Amino acid sequence: MTVDVLIAGAGPNGLMLACELSLGGVRPIVLERLPDNTKENRANGLVGQVVRALDRRGLYERLSGGAEPPRPSPAFVFGALPLELSRLDDNPMYGLAVPQRRVEQVLEERARELGVEILRGHELTGLAQDEDGVTVEIAGPEGPYTLRTRFLVGADGGHSRVRKLCGIGFPGVTRDGSVSIGAHVTVPAELVDAATGGLNVPGYGLIPPFMHHRTDHGLFVYAPFPTGTLVNTTEWNRDGGGDRPPTLDELRESVRRVLGADLPFGPPEGAGPHLLRRLSGGNTRLAERFRDRRVLLAGDAAHVHSAIGGPGLNLGLQDVINLGWKLAAEIRGWAPPGLLDTYETERRPAAERVVMHTQAQSALIAPGPEVTALRVLFTELLRDERTIKHIADMMSGADIRYDLGGDHPLAGRPAPDLTLETETGPVRLAELTRAARPLLLNLTPDAAPAAALDGALEGWRDRVDLVTGKADRDAPAVLLVRPDCYVAWASDSPRLGEKERDALRAALTAAFGAPSGTSSGAGG
Ligand SMILES: Cc1cc2nc3c(=O)[nH]c(=O)nc-3n(C[C@H](O)[C@H](O)[C@H](O)COP(=O)(O)OP(=O)(O)OC[C@H]3O[C@@H](n4cnc5c(N)ncnc54)[C@H](O)[C@@H]3O)c2cc1C
């Protein structure tokens, strides 16, 4: 038996990819070396456009536990400098404080609903590729065995075995010298500022919640998450601690050095699981290439960087949303030539940008008077709304524009959040995209364009759905939206003349392959 896609790694990115492939009509198998999903929690939240992307798959509600659509965050930090996002008319920074463990639970639940097989306790140990597929060696609970797959995706984390077995280099830097200690703790209620939720540290002053706070001696974070109150410090040029487990006393001493004051905290209360960890140094690395013939890399297997500002899942989950429909199209036979290679051409620049801004932020939080001077300058620059917007667009990933041709300003950009008034009532675009099918949106109020667009779709109706509705805000007359919710083509003209019709059909061919019924068309 040949599997269509094997995914190595049931971390958030492997699981999300499995969901995306299933929506695209392909049944993947996920291999996970760990027997259960009780590994240490890493991320405390999702930051950026990924929150909208999850909404567009119906996953935001499951993660937030509410029915409300996502709203942008009023404030965030860049390199421990406050970003006043509430000043922006068009704020792209969305956030969702949910632990990574919960993200993985929800994604696993969704993958299983979609029929994905997840094999826990099965470790990929070897691979060999030929023209038709990949033979994968696996160490399972009952011993070693092999599986044959048409494509293999390494979503197996920063130390990716898949990447190493393919001989793909992972150049970058290892930054030594920083030591972070983080723990769930209990802080005395009288130290919590009722107005701001910040922490009044005796002898130091008020520290806002959820913000990196830099002093000349290090970094301090106080984050009262619903799952536990986190206190974290980062210091430079200290002993990394080796394999010695960290202690709360070490954290107390570190707080004293960073703030120059004592924070009287106690051990965490409640059932847990509770965090107590030490991280030394850090890597910033980008895979030389994301693809080696029938093997692709996604998430941390393709890029690692500082966790500052929480960019990891914003990048990784959007990688796999980009990859999923393209790989499904390749397997189902309707992908246009080169579509799968656009995974790397589109996502590498996004990864490079994260590498750049996390390194810039790491520089801005480092100790020393030169850094303090740089921060004064940055603080002045951040009074300008345009700078806030620039940084917010960069951190959230809203400045991404894929090169999809076409001269409309929306081409290659994420589809705008719209609500459509349709024959059956109002519907958010984020609800229409949950099946991950390409959409042709007719946003003109009258029926004539609908007939013309329907005609233009001849040969693609098996792959592309036409939806007619009146948009609740300024929007183009016609939008062609890819399954990853990026705009493949747009037109402001409600009349589909010959030129526009040709341009639309060219965009349909470029994104979704030749029309069925033609010699190169897939026919579904
Ligand atoms: C301390 C810390 C805090 C962070 N905070 C944030 C944050 O707040 N927000 C954010 O967005 N990101 C954060 N990140 C980054 C985020 O945790 C990662 O980007 C994310 O875990 C990457 O997911 P992944 O699926 O690519 O890899 P992983 O989560 O590493 O999952 C890889 C999976 O592959 C499995 N595996 C490995 N090798 C094999 C094999 N040979 N065969 C089978 N299975 C294998 C592993 O067991 C693992 O389950 C943080 C990271 C750290 C370290």
Automatic annotation (TrEMBL):
SUPFAM superfamilies (UniProt xref): FAD/NAD(P)-binding domain
Name the coenzymes or cofactors required: FAD
| Key words of the record | FAD, Flavoprotein
Task: Kindly indicate whether the keyword Flavoprotein belongs to this entry.
Answer: yes
| Spans traversing the lipid bilayer | none
Source organism superkingdom: Bacteria
FAD-binding domain span:
3-357
> What species is this protein from?
Microbispora triticiradicis
User: This chain belongs to which protein, by name?
Assistant: FAD-dependent oxidoreductase
One GO molecular function term? Answer: oxidoreductase activity, acting on paired donors, with incorporation or reduction of molecular oxygen, NAD(P)H as one donor, and incorporation of one atom of oxygen
Mind telling me which InterPro entries this protein's record contains? Answer: FAD-bd (IPR002938), FAD/NAD-bd_sf (IPR036188), RIFMO-like (IPR050641)
